Amino acid sequence: MDTGQCVHCGLCLPSCPTYVETGLEGESPRGRIFLLQRLHDDPSMLNAVTTEYLDDCLDCRACEAVCPAHVPTGHLVEEWRAETPRRGAEGDSPALGGFRGLSRPLSFFLGSPKGLLWLQRLARWSQWPVLGPWITRLRFVPQPARYLVRGIPQKIPKTLSRYRTLPSLEGSRTPVLLFVGCVMDTIYADTNHHTEDLLALAGTDVVLPLEQRCCGALHMHGGDPAVTKSWAKENIQAFETSGASVIVVNAAGCGTTLKEYAALFDLADPWHARAQRFEAAVVDATVFLSQCSLPTLADSSDVHITVHDPCHLAHAQGIRQEPRTLLKRAGYALQEMAESDLCCGSAGIYNLTHPDMAKKLLDRKISHIPKTVAWVAAANPGCLMQIQSRLCEDPKGPGAVHPLDLVWNAYRQAGLIHPNPDGLVSR
Ligand code: SF4
Ligand code: SF4
């Protein structure tokens, strides 16, 4: 762990959500780096307070994006979480304890098609008019999870996007692999279908290998990289046998994890070079599509959109303009919000393990949404659920939606995309 790069300049402080909210040095990137250095020199310093400061990190990478010394604070905290053995009461924290409790069920739900179908079923049931409210009253369902259920889309397809009939690969063009993810594959399967339609509109053949798996981001952030590593190998193999040269991904969190697979393997491990080739092929869907010749629609829309920049898109991948480019090309009017790239509090399952801080950050995000917009566009499922869980309180107010759903809808209304013949739900 190399914490020595930090020159303590403090330039990262204003971009750190937990520092912005608390004003505490221990809740800042610089404070966390200092703590990691001290813990490295003297592990006996580990106690409930130091652990909490480190566990409170959202791994949002905002500090990394502005640090002149390129200190990888988010990575270092992640590394610390993975390396620190299970601790007793004195050093343990509710956050990591929470993740440990969730790691196994997450592996079941996200790790196999059977689990994903159950996840999709539960999400759909949670939106039924009678059953939904009953489920959210069940005592064993943690309060933050009950709250989050409100952010799930009301219409969820009944199939995983990966089980859709594979598109024809006729022709000589090399296909792109659409990475379908886990939450995107289930709760936001429509968005995957829309992405596929847009890729087709852009003249691209798409392949969706059945063998692809969840990217493993949640386990990585929670300090359980062994699961991520095992799923990474399956994704690398699926890519290598797919015949695709590019991997298109429409979820910011997945994209970042996929682009960091090589770091999971030692340099001497043959998987390292394979992971490097995999990483180099990963492209965010908004970047890929903005470089294609999608038609420009007349600016006839009076629908105003504001863009929330997911941390793992803006900070980790440096992608900010492309979602806006696509939305403008599709005829939407954009209205920027303040702090569009400050974390909304979702951060994987942070909103479940740290409900208080997550709520503060969500309050802050909601307060910045312009009153006149119809939609808040966010290219990450966690952000969508988190923001929608609050926006749903005002049925006349804006909703949260993936930018590619909006783009798809504009092209559909322009008659350039035709509704799916298999009756898939569209917004
Ligand atoms: S992490 Fe980077 S920006 Fe923050 S104090 Fe250290 S050197 Fe400065
Ligand atoms: S990763 Fe985010 S929450 Fe963690 S120290 Fe950096 S800016 Fe703060």
CATH fold annotation of the largest domain: Rossmann fold
Q: What is the strand tally?
A: 8
Strand order of the largest sheet: 2-1-3-4
Radius of gyration: 21 Å
Shape: globular
Structural class of the secondary elements?
mainly alpha
Question: What is the rounded distance between the termini?
Answer: 46 Å
Number of helices: 22
What percent of residues adopt helix (DSSP H or I)?
A: 40-55%
CATH hierarchy class name of the largest domain: Alpha Beta
The run of helices and strands is: HHHHHHHHHEHHEHHEHHEHEHHEHHEHEH
Instruction: Please summarize the sheet with the most strands.
Output: 4 strands, parallel
What ligands are attached or bound here? Answer: iron/sulfur cluster
Mean pLDDT: 87
Properties at a glance:
disordered C terminus; single chain; 4 domains; globular; binds iron/sulfur cluster; mainly alpha; 22 helices; 4-stranded parallel beta sheet; 427 residues
Describe the fold and architecture.
It contains 22 helices and 8 strands. The chain has helices spanning 17-22, 29-41, 48-55, 62-66, 73-83, 94-111, 113-125, 131-135, 143-149, 183-186, 189-201, 217-221, 225-240, 252-258, 270-281, 285-290, 311-314, 321-329, 350-353, 355-367, 381-391, 403-413; strands at residues 176-179, 206-207, 246-249, 282-284, 304-307, 333-334, 375-377, 399-401. Helix 21 links the parallel strand 7 (375-377) and strand 8. The radius of gyration is 21 Å and the shape is globular. The longest helix is centred in the N-terminal third of the chain and has 18 residues, at 94-111. The strands form 2 sheets. Strands 2-1-3-4 form a 4-stranded parallel sheet. Strands 6-5-7-8 form a 4-stranded parallel sheet. It has 427 residues and is mainly alpha-helical. The protein has 4 domains: 13-92, no CATH class; 95-149, no CATH class; 161-290, Rossmann fold; 304-413. The chain starts with 16 loop residues before the first helix and ends in a 14-residue tail after the last helix. Bound molecules: iron/sulfur cluster (SF4) (2 copies). Residues 6-12, 29-30, 33, 63, 67, 69, 71, 73 line the site of one iron/sulfur cluster. One iron/sulfur cluster is lined by residues 15-18, 29, 32, 57-63, 73-74.
